[in-house]
Amino acid sequence: MAITAETKDCTALSDSELSEMADTCADGPSKYEAGLLSKQAEEWVLVTLVREGRSLKGFSFCTLERIGGTPCIIMGCGSFKRTARRDAYLRAALSDQFRRAVLAFPDEDVLVAARVAQPGAYEAFRTLHDVVPRPGHTPTGEERAWGRRLAKRYGIDPKRFDDRRSLVKGDGTFPLVLDHETTRPERLPEGIDELFSDVDPQRGDSLIVFGWVMAEELAKIET
């Protein structure tokens, strides 16, 4: 069956869709429930829903906005059904968000950001440029500043954020992250596990990850 993705206003989410979204989280570690997702719908502007046929296979809250004048796709919590096609579900969600970015930010490079709690979620950043954090890279001053800006955007207490490692220290609850486990871990950067050596999702830890999609790449997306 065909995979389709739709990005729409969170205000248009129905109770049945929220229940479907909660069901997609059941196989993963996040186990976000409908009540929590309803509160997230109040905090985010957009949500991307990925279906295979009529069945919901994944979702991601997001916004398209400018931070300090820079166009950004900011992803909130999301989860993708743990099937053999889950990487395709994630790609479909990203493609639709990129399509929206082309319309909102024509001819501009766009920063893409998400909170993640496991290496497999780096699948979302595999084709992006200058990803931070990444193995073997020491963030520059500007990259650390971006980390702090994004932590503020996510509503994180500055005392809980380590801008050298892009690490959010937990508050005792499972973090609101892009919950994805890639089917092809061998495609991820060598040494990626080291970035997560101090990340304990059950304690609430996560990384703020960001990278860039170039204007010329966005221009190739059909709108």
Question: Could you explain how this protein is built, in words?
Answer:
The protein has 223 residues and is an alpha+beta fold. It has helices at residues 15-24, 34-43, 86-104, 141-153, 192-195, 215-218, and strands at 3-9, 46-52, 55-67, 70-80, 110-116, 129-132, 161-162, 167-168, 178-179, 206-213. A hairpin with a 2-residue loop joins strand 3 and strand 4 (70-80). Helix 1 packs across helix 2. The relative contact order is 0.17.
Structure summarized in a few sentences:
This protein is α+β, with helices and mostly antiparallel strands and 223 residues long. The protein has helices at residues 15-24, 34-43, 86-104, 141-153, 192-195, 215-218, and strands at 3-9, 46-52, 55-67, 70-80, 110-116, 129-132, 161-162, 167-168, 178-179, 206-213.
Structural class: alpha+beta
Order of helices and strands: EHHEEEHEEHEEEHEH
Q: How large, in whole angstroms, is the Cα Rg?
A: 16 Å
Tell me what portion of residues adopts beta-strand conformation.
Answer: 25-35%
Strand tally: 10
- Report the average pLDDT across residues: 96
Ranges with pLDDT <50 over ≥5 residues?
Answer: none
Described by strand count, sense and barrel closure, the largest sheet is:
10 strands, mixed
Give the overall silhouette.
Answer: globular
Helix content: 25-40%
Number of helix segments? 6
What is the distance, rounded to the nearest whole angstrom, between the alpha carbons of the first and last residues?
A: 23 Å
